């Protein structure tokens, strides 16, 4: 299992954060714009796993992903108190368009860890999407 830092780095890259590549083997510094200010964060400082403000930006981006082909494509993110489910697929009336591409339902050991379940589901989705 990857560390939280590696998972935060995966999410930062998915979100389009600019990576400082002049750091050699050290953990990379990421730059992003938040609230119209340029912010910089190391992966260990990122709060995707613990702050809804950070995580919901990722959920919103996932829900906006569209297909590059002629299919209608949608992604639903269902956040409940005991689980988070992400479903992504093509749909429509034409033959072959109702295709499920990704479906994960995550519920953790602590069944009411809503942010933890959502973070885990988001990481799984991004690993699949990449």
Describe the protein's architecture and organization.
This protein has helices at residues 4-14, 52-64, 114-129, and strands at 18-19, 30-34, 37-41, 72-79, 84-91, 99-106. With 130 residues, it is α+β, with helices and mostly antiparallel strands. A three-stranded antiparallel sheet has the order 1-2-3, with no helix packed on it. A hairpin with a 4-residue loop joins strand 4 and strand 5. Helix 1 crosses helix 3 (114-129) and helix 2 (52-64) packs parallel to helix 3 (114-129). It is globular and about 50 Å long. It starts with a helix and ends with a helix.
Give the count of structural domains: 2
The proportion of residues in beta strands is: 25-35%
- Dominant shape: globular
* CA-based gyration radius: 16 Å
Q: Identify the quaternary structure here.
A: single chain
Strand order within the widest beta sheet: 1-2-3
Largest sheet: 3 strands, antiparallel
Q: Helices and strands: which structural class?
A: alpha+beta
- N-C termini distance: 17 Å
Order of helices and strands: HEEEHEEEH
Q: Residue-averaged pLDDT, rounded?
A: 81
The number of distinct β-strands equals 6
Helix content: 25-40%
Q: Poorly predicted ranges (pLDDT <50, ≥5 residues)? A: none
- Work out the helix count: 3
List key phrases describing it.
single chain; 130 residues; alpha+beta; 2 domains; three-stranded antiparallel sheet; 31% helix; globular
What is shown here, in short?
By secondary structure, the protein is of the alpha+beta class.
């Amino acid at each position: 299992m990857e560390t939280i830092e590696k998972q935060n780095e995966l999410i930062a890259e998915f979100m389009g954060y600019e990576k400082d590549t002049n750091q050699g083997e050290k953990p990379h510094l990421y730059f992003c714009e938040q609230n119209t200010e340029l912010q910089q964060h190391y992966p260990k400082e990122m709060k995707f796993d613990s702050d809804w403000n950070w995580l919901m930006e990722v959920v919103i981006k996932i829900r906006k992903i569209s297909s590059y082909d002629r299919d209608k494509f949608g992604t639903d993110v269902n956040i409940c108190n005991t689980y988070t489910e992400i479903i992504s697929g093509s749909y429509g009336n034409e033959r072959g368009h109702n295709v499920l591409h990704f479906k994960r339902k995550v519920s953790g050991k602590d069944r009411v860890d809503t942010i933890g379940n959502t973070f885990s589901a988001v990481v799984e989705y991004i690993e699949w999407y990449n």
